[in-house]
Amino acid sequence: MENREESRLTSAELANLWRLYITENLMYQFKTPLIDNCQDPDIRSAIEFSRAISEHYIVSIENIFRNENYPVPTAYSENDIHPQAPALFTDVFCLHFIHQGAQLGMSKIHEMMAVAVRQDVWEVLNQGANDFKDLYQQSLQLLLTKGLYSRPAFLPPEKESRFAENKHYVSGWLGNQRPLNALEIMSIHNTIIQNGISKAILRAFAQVINDKKLRDYLEKGAETASDIMRELEDWLIMENTNVTATLDSEILPTETPPYSDKLMMMLIANVGVGSLGVYGNALSTVFRRDLGLKFMHLMKDAVQYAQEGLHLVIDKGWMEVPPQFPDINTR
């Protein structure tokens, strides 16, 4: 049996639980108006399941924090949503958002499980991981059934396995370029999907947010996401492969905000973290130098945009910070 010292939360467990609590609390509040305004019963069921996953984490992590005498994060509340506001997104957008969230959730939770030591922490994460898998399948089947799923390109089968014949395989700036391989197509496709969702959220929030400075920031992000999608789609067009449809038409015309400015800005920050993960994965899988350089630039620009957003939310007093070591200079 572990003694008290050994059974305390490690810094890794504390960090992941804190981050997960903040994120799932945010998502719980964000999904509430989506459920209230959803017209399609199948899609509403998927959103409700997604919100139930968020609730599982909120309740479980609160219990762990209280038992360990850590303060429960303030996070968000029903005060950050406006129940009487009209719908901002169509059901189609909601389904895409839920599906993308399930994908990211599966990835992130397994990373957290890999550093979980305590059994209760591992069990909380594992239950959520299983739920995210079920949500992924539920949302995927809905997208397929409704003809909304955007498949990556298909590649014809080759006669035999191949090896790079020369260093031209990793070139990509000058002269003839080799065709994109499957890993590169996957990375481009995933990046377009992530930016399509990001752009729709940015444009929708810019449409209803109250603060002009924040609105300008969101509009800048939407234009950047649009530019990224166009450039990456050009690579697919050169390979004569299919291009992913945008979600621009899934934003509804309203100027009444369903959320507080704080919630909208912090959701954008959360989406930005997801984009950085997609860019990082892409950078680790592409071989052509032109693609590698492109994803490096995307990461740099995303970090700069995120920093600009952090400065805005810090100025507003909205940025809650994770637990840290005591400052010895204040003792």
UniProtKB/TrEMBL annotation:
It holds the Pfam family DUF3231. It comes from the Bacteria. InterPro entries: DUF3231, Ferritin-like. This is DUF3231 family protein. It comes from Salicibibacter kimchii. The lineage of its organism: Bacteria, Bacillati, Bacillota, Bacilli, Bacillales.
